[in-house]
Amino acid sequence: MIIVNQNKTMIINFTNILALAISSLLDGSIAIKMYEPNNKTGTTIARYGTTKRAKEVLKEIIERNQEYALVQNGIINDKDIVMLSKIYEMPAE
To answer: How far apart are CA 73 and CA 40, in angstroms?
Structure first.
């Protein structure tokens, strides 16, 4: 699955990253950061006003990835899913 960051300037291959994590930023916003094997500080891919919203977005990513994995593994037929996108775009808010 591919993730597009919030400001549409980065494309991320979900299978090649180590982690996605929620982090508080100095300006008070909440970031979702992507961690790659050699990146200890993480790269911010989205910002939200609350931790609750950031958790909702992470949950959406998990659900989309699970659906995509079921199709990739032949467990369900992609014709059974009305709209299965290989791309997840980080929502604005």
So the answer is: 32
